[in-house]
Write a structure and sequence with these properties.
The protein has 286 residues and is of the alpha+beta class. It has 13 helices and four strands. A hairpin with a 3-residue loop joins strand 1 and strand 2. Helix 7 packs parallel to helix 9.
Length: 286
């Protein structure tokens, strides 16, 4: 499960418990999307809005539909052989670590529980992913990277661990490694806007503006994309000497998210870009 706030992106990611539910706490005022995904199912999404003074508990049900290519195997009662191999003791340690991480915010305690689960079952991909997520929050980048890479090695077809690993590589300016990782993730799920968005950021950081624009536009064409995509496109257009397009992206962002914390900066930059757009460049015919 992902809790997403526009335009800031993913606030937190959690695994559901054995009952299929999850609770998010400490949520600040604003509009959020809750995204649910499970291997073999099409992702689902719901929207919630917490306004000032509204501290009520909101319950949201997100039904997931089985992907067409997986219906036959599910109908025949096929169960993952790996799931059958996981001992109950390892599952209990995983659930304990998940609760410590998601509900208690006990990062060190969760890592210890996940390590015990791995000792009981070394091939537990979900454990490596959540342990990596906890280690990221502990600012333990080297071990977090190792955990996330192990999760991918154990279950390369699921994209859950790709995104936090990509963000980790971006923070270390290891852009070429991140690009390779994102391209692999995009092959697995071409509908996810995050892969082209992060690829656009990588290319932009290296001043590769044509490639950055290509990926930025691909991200904006996706479904349910956050408004921050338009901020990125505006920056790319501005650095590509296309102020008119940059203005259009910022105006669209202002329409989509007028209460964003980024609006002060948008109001500051828009007049400058409008002035640039109104002045013919030397390359334009007069």
């Amino acid at each position: 499960m992902q809790l997403v706030r526009f335009p800031d992106g993913i606030v937190t990611e959690q695994f559901t418990g054995s009952d299929g539910g999850v609770q998010f706490s400490g949520i600040s005022v604003g509009a959020y999307a809750i995204r649910a995904s499970h291997q073999g199912y099409d992702p689902g999404e719901a929207h919630v809005d917490f306004r000032k003074g509204d501290g009520t508990l909101q319950k949201v049900d997100i039904p997931l539909l089985l992907r067409k290519q997986d219906r036959n195997s599910m109908a025949s009662g096929t169960i993952s052989a790996d799931d059958l191999r996981i001992p109950d003791s390892a599952r209990k340690e995983f659930e304990h670590g998940r609760r410590l991480l998601n509900e208690k915010r006990d990062l060190d305690g969760s890592v210890a529980a996940f390590q015990r689960a791995i000792e009981l079952y070394p091939g537990y991909a979900d454990v490596y992913f959540l342990m990596g997520a906890a280690q990221v929050r502990l600012n333990a980048a080297p071990v977090a990277e190792a955990s996330l890479r192990k999760a991918i090695a154990l279950d390369s077809q699921r994209t859950t661990a790709y995104y936090p690993l990509a963000i980790l590589l971006f923070g270390q300016r290891r852009f070429n490694e991140e690009k390779e990782l994102l391209l692999e993730a995009e092959k697995l799920d071409a509908t996810d806007w995050r892969w082209p968005f992060e690829l656009a950021r990588c290319h932009a950081q290296q001043s590769q503006w044509d490639s950055a624009l290509r990926y930025g536009l691909a991200a904006s064409a996706g479904a349910n994309v956050p408004s921050k995509v338009h901020l990125l496109l505006a920056d790319i257009y501005a650095n590509s000497n296309k102020p008119r397009e940059a203005v259009a992206e910022l105006e669209l962002f202002a329409q989509l998210d007028p209460k964003s914390a980024h609006m002060d900066r948008v109001r500051e930059v828009l007049p400058v870009l409008r002035q640039r757009a109104a002045t013919p460049s030397q390359s334009e015919p007069r």
